Amino acid sequence: MAEPLVKKDDDRDDEEIIASGSEASEARSQFVEDNFVFFYGKFVVLKSNNGVIVVPPSCMVDYSPFMGIEKGAVLQEARVFNDPQLDARRCSQVITKLLYLLNQGETFTKIEATEVFFAVTKLFQSKDTGLRRMVYLMIKELSPSADEVIIVTSSLMKDMNSKTDMYRANAIRVLCRITDGTLLTQIERYLKQAIVDKNPVVASAALVSGIHLFQTNPEIVKRWSNEVQEAVQSRAALVQFHALALNHQVAMTHPLAVTNCNIDMESLISDQNRSIATLAITTLLKTGNESSVDRLMKQITNFMSDIADEFKIVVVEAIRSLCLKFPLKYRSLMNFLSNILREEGGFEYKKAIVDSIVILIRDIPEAKEGGLFHLCEFIEDCEFTYLSTQILHFLGNEGPKTSDPSKYIRYIYNRVILENATVRAGAVSTLAKFGALVDSLKPRIFVLLRRCLYDSDDEVRDRATLYLNMLGGDDLVGETDKDVKEFLFGSLDVPLVNLETSLRNYEASEEPFDISAVPKEVKLQPHAEKKAPGKKPSGLAAPTSGPTSAVDAYEKLLSSIPEFSGFGELFKSSAPVELTEAETEYAVNVVKHIYDGHVVFQYNCTNTIPEQLLENVTVFVDASEAEEFSEVASKPLKTLPYDSPGQSFVAFEKPEGVPAVGKFSNLLKFIVKEVDPATGEADEEGVEDEYQLEDLEVVAADYMLKVGVSNFKHAWDNMGADCERVDEYGLGVRESLAEAVSAVINILGMQACEGTDVVPSNARSHTCLLSGVFIGNVKVLARISFGIDGPKQVAMKLAVRSEDQVVSDTIHEIVASG
């Protein structure tokens, strides 16, 4: 190892050491104690008690000053907060370490957190500005309880009225973070004064606090409209932006509360700060009335060309909401959307506009023909294949229902001539839809489809051939009108992965492929038993080739057992549910097989102990908490050698066609025999033993198959309202709208359609579309509208359509009881 270079300086009392190797390591250790570093040229300079240590940066790459610190040691250091003579620098270092631990996920017990909190409050007596800022951070991170907040409230309120602006701003933020509604009414006057404070940092702190407080105390924050209006006119961009952000949040749920700010916000549309201008526009679009729509559109038109696409998307979504709010203004708003659709912009921006036009067409009948015409003009010069195909698909569904369908044919056939293969194929399908629904257009459609037979792409040619055959072109005998329309407009009610697997397994023969035989639910591997580490799956535990073989394997296995052969057709098999922890002596999971009048539990067992052989393995099931179930059969496992998975079964009878639910306790019972490791032979005599397993539940979702539909609106309309039931429910306090949506989907066990299971961030309302097949092979569709009503209170409107009114009512009962 090279010797360190030691350089003497006659004018200084200490030494500079260019450290390497172990010296650098010592320097790092010293740095932990002194916590003092600065940079000099290409070197990192650490100040130590013995002098100044200069370390090459390469030695510091993987180094953290907090490396190796422990919670217990830091809590001991926190006693420095109680010293009569406070060392501000040392206290700041300890708080830094505490904050580091908290942000790394370290948890403090209630006692530890309380002791640290009370110790930190003593630091208010220090006049050190830097330490005070650290105290504010620490109090926010600790989130004290209501009893503890009282201790620090007086100190924070004193700082709120301090002459030091930094104290005032931070005290406001902290106090609003830890306070409850009772204390908020006491400090409301101070907060309203702070909103109009001359110092922008103080005003901004109060406004940001208002944004957070609105989630829990909206009624109080709504009363600040006059002060917020004055803040909107502030010369400080920071204050303007936060005032607009607060207005926008209030406008999302209480638009009338901020209408007095509209005139001031209109003047901000031309603000040079485009973030402020965008926020002003979107807030005005939320709070504006019908008479102000045209004026707003004129102002926004000049504004759109100056902002980035991400801001334009926000404006487009706000305009869509405004149009749905004032449907009589659809002409001016639709014209605005069509104009900006022709301008330059990226994919996401154009997609947002197209989506908005499609929604307006669906929700405002009068806007249909004008909206379709705007979309037709757009695809004449559209550079995005995805948008062109989506518009063609939508045009094929809606165009034939207009007063003059023929005017759209030119736009569609232009795509066959001018576009790439993907768009050409979509255009052929759209032409076929017009031919199927509009008899007067059939001859013209046949001519156009025949031209497509000579296309260079095989997909385009195949589609043209198929549709000519179906529609009866070229003197062919076509399918019936009902079959054609079902094929062109019906939803594909089988998962594509299942259809693909079935087609791959189909062997050409005189018997045609039967799509009705394709499984409707994607199922996991049927035998997911745990295996000992390092061993390959064997026998029934081997992976299956695909969804179809998984279903077949279950049905074949169960039908081979005489006790279960009379249960009828298997409706559904669940994914395996683990009943043991990982790395335990015995690994057990269970698959729930659902029949119309029975439920069979298949316990997949694995013995992970080489020195043991298990015999007469059975699961004793206690159904005392499942009153509607009665045990009718069980099939024990004769032997269970080491790492050789086996199955034990227990069957229950339940009311036929009823989604009975309940909890089952499980106890694994067996005879264990010792195995000689040398010979592999087991003892003749064994010992009875048992092993407690986790509880198992049968829930309502077990009676629902996840079966999606490709076109929910079409499926919903075809289902009809004969067996529809609509009701509203309160879901209580939820962490977020996304959490509420996920919970309802899980309770029902249905398939989310068209990506509606994804909730946009910060959304306050959302519509979820669900599809499934209920036990008894009854198709079910659900349209659920969610909304935030009050502080984190989620309300839900559930509309269910099915082929049986009893099933529609049952879905509502499941939600009401869940």
TrEMBL record:
Listed PANTHER family: COATOMER SUBUNIT GAMMA (PTHR10261), COATOMER SUBUNIT GAMMA-2 (PTHR10261:SF0)
One GO CC annotation: endoplasmic reticulum
Entry's localization field: Cytoplasm; Golgi apparatus membrane; Cytoplasmic vesicle, COPI-coated vesicle membrane
Family affiliation: Belongs to the COPG family.
Keyword list, A-Z: Cytoplasm, Cytoplasmic vesicle, ER-Golgi transport, Golgi apparatus, Membrane, Protein transport, Repeat, Transport
The keyword Protein transport is annotated on this UniProt entry: yes
Gene Ontology biological process terms, A to Z: endoplasmic reticulum to Golgi vesicle-mediated transport; intra-Golgi vesicle-mediated transport; intracellular protein transport; protein secretion
Membrane topology: Peripheral membrane protein
Name this polypeptide is given: Coatomer subunit gamma
Domain of life: Eukaryota
GO function term, MF aspect, one: structural molecule activity
Domain annotation Clathrin/coatomer adaptor adaptin-like N-terminal: ranges: 249-472
Keyword Membrane: yes
Function: The coatomer is a cytosolic protein complex that binds to dilysine motifs and reversibly associates with Golgi non-clathrin-coated vesicles, which further mediate biosynthetic protein transport from the ER, via the Golgi up to the trans Golgi network. Coatomer complex is required for budding from Golgi membranes, and is essential for the retrograde Golgi-to-ER transport of dilysine-tagged proteins.
Organism ancestry: Eukaryota, Viridiplantae, Streptophyta, Embryophyta, Tracheophyta
Stretch list, region Disordered: 526-547
Organism of this sequence: Cocos nucifera (Coconut palm)
Subunit field text: Oligomeric complex that consists of at least the alpha, beta, beta', gamma, delta, epsilon and zeta subunits.
Family matches, as Pfam families: Adaptin_N, Coatomer_g_Cpla, COP-gamma_platf
Residue ranges of domain Coatomer subunit gamma C-terminal in the record: 701-815
Coatomer gamma subunit appendage Ig-like subdomain domain sequence ranges: 553-698
